[in-house]
Design goal:
Protein name: Cysteine dioxygenase
Structural class: mainly beta
GO molecular function: ferrous iron binding; oxidoreductase activity, acting on single donors with incorporation of molecular oxygen, incorporation of two atoms of oxygen
CATH topology: Jelly Rolls
Number of domains: 1
Family: Belongs to the cysteine dioxygenase family.
Helix content: 10-25%
CATH architecture: Sandwich
Organism: Streptomyces subrutilus
Shape: globular
Strand order of the largest sheet: 1-7-13-12-4-10-6-8
Bound molecules: fe (ii) ion
InterPro entries: CDO_1, RmlC-like_jellyroll, RmlC_Cupin_sf
Radius of gyration: 16 Å
Number of helices: 3
Distance between the termini: 25 Å
Number of strands: 13
C-alpha cells in the first residue's frame, strides 16, 4: 500500500444499510443470538481462565462455520482501534461491562494510510452483562473494559472467519492505518 495524501471521510453509513449477502453463512443477527446465548451459559463462561495482568481467550465453535471467541478483560484493558475486513460479527458481554467506541462510517478498504474523520462520526455504547451488539462488514471499533475493579468476559463471533484485522491509531480526528494482522499472528 502506498502512502497517500490524507483524505477526509464524512459520509455516514446509512441507518438501515442492507445486510451483506455471503451465501451459506449466518447473518449478523444469528451471530448476535449465538453470542447472547453463549454469554448466558455459566458453564462456558466459567471455563475461561482469568488473568489479572492481561486478556485471556478461548476459541469456541461458532454457528455454521463462524469463528467465535470467549475473551476475558482485566480492568483497564482494551483492543485499540481495528476492523474485521469483510467479516460481519457480533459480541455480547457475559460478565462485567464493556465499552465499545465505533465509527459510523465505512472506511475505504484499500489505498489509504491516514484519514481525517469528519465531526459527528464517533459512537459509544456501554454493554452490561446480558447485552450485545451486531455489526456489518468493515465495522471499525475499539472495545474496552473501563472498570477499575471488575473483570469483564465477553463472547464474540465472526463470519466469514476473520481473514485479517486492520489496526489503527487514533489522534483526535485522524485515523492512521498501522498494520494488518493475519490469522497466523493470533493463533
Ligand atoms: Fe473487533
Amino acid at each position: 500500500m502506498s502512502p497517500s495524501a490524507q483524505s477526509t471521510l464524512s459520509a455516514p453509513v446509512p441507518a438501515h444499510a442492507p445486510e451483506p449477502v455471503t451465501a451459506g453463512g449466518p447473518s449478523a443477527a444469528e451471530l448476535l443470538d449465538f453470542a447472547l446465548r453463549t454469554a448466558a451459559d455459566p458453564e462456558v463462561v466459567s471455563s475461561l481462565p482469568l488473568d489479572p495482568e492481561g486478556r485471556t481467550w478461548i476459541r469456541l465453535d461458532g454457528p455454521s462455520g463462524s469463528e467465535a471467541w470467549l475473551i476475558g478483560w482485566p480492568p483497564g484493558t482494551g483492543t485499540g482501534w481495528h476492523d474485521h475486513a469483510e467479516s460481519r460479527g457480533a459480541f455480547a458481554t457475559a460478565r462485567g461491562r464493556l465499552t465499545e467506541r465505533s465509527l459510523a462510517v465505512r472506511l475505504p478498504a484499500e489505498g489509504w494510510q491516514s484519514l481525517e474523520l469528519a465531526p459527528g462520526l464517533d459512537r459509544s455504547r456501554s454493554l452490561a452483562a446480558g447485552a450485545g451488539r451486531a455489526f456489518g462488514e468493515h465495522h471499525v471499533h475499539e472495545v474496552l473494559n473501563e472498570s477499575t475493579a471488575e473483570h469483564a468476559v465477553s463472547v464474540h463471533a465472526y463470519y466469514p472467519p476473520l481473514p485479517l484485522i486492520r489496526r489503527y491509531s487514533r489522534s483526535g480526528p485522524v485515523l492512521n492505518l498501522e498494520h494488518v494482522e493475519r490469522p497466523a499472528d493470533w493463533q
